[in-house]
Write a structure and sequence with these properties.
Structural class: alpha/beta
Oligomer: single chain
Radius of gyration: 18 Å
Largest sheet: 7 strands, mixed
Number of strands: 7
Shape: globular
Strand content: 15-25%
CATH topology: Rossmann fold
Length: 282
């Protein structure tokens, strides 16, 4: 039997992810939110599927200097939480791209509900082949998504290509460390669709090779360890919805995989960092 391609593996992973449009809407309904009069100030409490929530969005915005004059590309935008948040709170215009059409569709519907579709748009696209002209964006962002993309050289090359000279690339990602074993790499690829896990130095080299000047690298490994323990508890709290949607076997498999992933932060086999680089002005 032929092994699934990275694209198919990531698609399958996110089609059955615990955080999805239905889960977001169900939680808001359970909390008594008036969905007919939804605002971003409310929605932002339910749709942030990345480490650190809205505070992480603000940290990335401050680092990259995102303001009302910026055109921002959110690579692997998922359900669109950070894109909406940045447009609403920092005044920028955002385009999000995601591999999954289902998540693009969900992100569009949530954005329309929050009345932000005049400033936030989403497209289905592969991060390794961005459908945009050279130099069209002031800022490119990503949050814990690049780990799912093989061929990091091409990924960084595409992100750099669509930045204007002087434009900024600001992203966070899950990283391998000097302690990461081959067995752990293989298990993260199989269970969490993390392909070709990068390292801190590896990203710095790739950025330099694509004409980007690295300005800052912040180690997030320790704060993420605490965040991930809490996220595991959140996912376990979604057991009933996950079982109802995908079955008990899927939940058990996901729980084992995510518990191992979180444990790798306890042992130091995985880390994380926030990067800022700018495209050199020639």
């Amino acid at each position: 039997m032929t092994a699934p391609s990275p694209t198919d593996s990531v698609a399958g992973f996110y089609e059955s992810h615990p955080i999805n449009e239905g889960q977001i809407l169900d939680k808001m309904r359970a909390d008594g939110v008036d969905l007919d009069n939804l605002t971003e100030d409310v929605l932002q409490n339910y749709d942030q599927d990345h480490f650190g929530g809205t505070a992480a969005n603000d940290a990335l915005a401050a680092l990259a200097g995102i303001d009302a004059g910026c055109l921002v590309l959110d690579v692997c935008s998922g359900m669109g939480g950070p894109s909406r948040y940045l447009a609403h709170h920092h005044g920028c215009r955002v385009t999000g791209i995601d591999l999954m059409q289902s998540r693009v569709d969900g992100a569009r519907r949530l954005t329309a509900m929050a009345k932000l579709d005049d400033r936030v748009a989403f497209e289905q696209a592969n991060a390794l082949d961005l459908p945009f002209d050279d130099g069209g964006f002031d800022v490119v962002i990503g949050q814990e998504a690049f780990c799912h993309i093989p061929d990091k050289d091409r990924l960084i090359g595409q992100c750099a290509r669509v930045l204007r000279p002087g434009g900024r690339l600001a992203f966070t990602d899950i990283l391998a460390t000097e302690r990461t074993s081959d067995e752990t790499r293989a298990r993260q690829q199989h269970e969490m669709t993390m392909f070709e896990l990068a390292t801190r130095d590896g990203y710095s080299r790739r950025l330099a090779a694509e004409g980007c000047v690295v300005e800052a690298v912040e180690d997030l490994s320790e704060p993420w360890r605490e965040i991930l323990i809490d996220r595991l508890a959140i996912y376990r709290g979604l057991k009933d919805q996950t079982v109802a949607s995908f079955g008990a076997e899927h939940f058990a498999r996901w729980d084992r995989a995510y518990a191992f992933f979180v444990g790798c932060y306890e042992t130091g086999e995985l880390g994380g960092a926030r990067f800022l680089a700018h495209r050199a002005v020639t």
